[in-house]
Predict the 3D structure of the following.
Amino acid sequence: MTTAARDDRQATGRRKLWGHQNRTLWFWVFVGPFVLGLGIFTYIPLGWSVYLSFFDAHNTVTPSDFVGFGNYTAMLQNEAFTDSLWTFLVFSLFIVPATYALSLALALMVHRQRRAQAFFRSVFFLPAACSYVVAALIWKMSIFNGVRFGLANTVLGWFGGDQIAWLSTTDPPWYWAVIVTVRLWLQAGFYMVLFLAGLQRISPTLYEAAAVDGARPGWQVFRHITFPQLKATSVAVVLLLVINAFQAFDEFYNLLSDSRGYPPYARPPLVYLYYTALGQGQNLGLGSAGAVLLALIIAVVTVGQAKWFGLGKKEAE
Amino acid sequence: MRDDSRVRAGRALRLSLLIALAFLFLIPFYLLVRNGLSAESDITSPEWTFFPSSLRWGNVKELFDDTSVPFARSLLNSSLIAVATTLGTLLLASLAGYGLARIPYRHANKVFYAILGTLMVPASVTFVPSFVLVSSLGWVSTLRGLIVPTLFSAFACFVFRQYFLGFPRELEDAARVDGLGYWRTYWRVVVPNSRPVFAAVGTIVFIGAWNSFLWPLVIGQDRNAWTVQVALSSFTTSQVIRLHELFIAAAVSIVPLLVVFLFFQRWIVAGVERSGIDD
């Protein structure tokens, strides 16, 4: 009897530890600190940003003059801001397809390469460890230097080409070649890894079935088996590429600005915001309005893209 | 027979293409080291050559001796920030991920969506209001201001939650039979059996923290609070540039990262595969 009673008491003790009454408490012990921090450092700034965007706030974080949607209309009528959106658009039209094609091609080649596969994967992935600041330095001061000692101009010289002032001329806009290649180098390897993961999940029986059906290895198999099977990966890659392009800051800032400041062209939205909010004017109200607009645009683009690709269905499950 | 030779030709073509691309991908690293170990005249020479005329290891010493450049200080700052951010993120995000995955709570889904929702708002768009908040706390140009706001990574939390959802329940049941509560089960059973995911997330967070630029640029206004990236950037945009010093500084700045990266590469790949972003 007594042992049974003790067992019983132990059982209740255990049930208490794992039981219903303590779960809420333990949930918050685990999740609480994270949620609290996220609230303070993400939700509060977000809310504050929306609040500040309705005020005139120069050089101050405690606004006084309510201006309603004044900052928003000023921002949308500001040519520099709309130009920055065009810059983003042009940039993503270059970088999204280029990165997509290069990373998929690398993944297909590395996947089929048996010997030294790990070596090639590491080499293509290695730039992912490099910062945009360092990469921009190499591109600006060594490869695409406008004067004669740059590598690109040296190579052009071998083929009898004329020297190009890569970063200091807007017409023709050679700086796009510099900006696009630096990002391509830095991020292609990362997306290649995503594609490699996708390729590994394709069942070999599909390829066997295709061979039985007489599909020729190469283009036909790629078009009818590999590419459709990679659809989920492709969607994720394109989404990430667009979101990341929207956030471009580091390479633009480091490639184009110098001791005289930033040139008036090729300012993506974040660079523009940086100078508006934290530049000489410290116009935090206007900067906040720009940040809110940008967040809204990113949200609309992301949700639109996800809907278009039919991603929402999976999350609803 | 003809097919056979065609396959072989295809293979050779692919291999040579891969070698050519690998060469292109490695050139920037080579240039970094080449210029860093050259005399300045070798970098700016109009007659550019693949190999510099001499290797100058003294450049490293010159960099650290140069008092006009707070390079050693910025290395120290970056190290402190990267280590603290990595440890803090692992602790906070793994606890939250475990709670969300394993502790039944009525509103757990709402909490999860509130966390996921912040992924939609990129951190770089909130830098203006975050700057306002951090400056009103008086944290501008402090390590606190550089570290604390970055500790709450929804991405890391998401990866941990997905991982813990797939964690074998039998192991936890064994701990339960031994009378362990959530807290001790977590520390004694779950964490020791989850080293790969901690390594994967930790590596990604470490690299991100070491390489991050916009936030340190905004917050590190005082030279003493510069990170390596901000210091390098300020050299490239300054008027007087000693190119060989700049390049050797950049080369030194990627050494710790390359070590971490090559050592943990396996886990990054596994982490990317497990993060479920392409599922």
Q: What stands out?
A: The mean pLDDT of chain B is 87. Chain B touches chain A through 97 residues (CB under 8 Å).
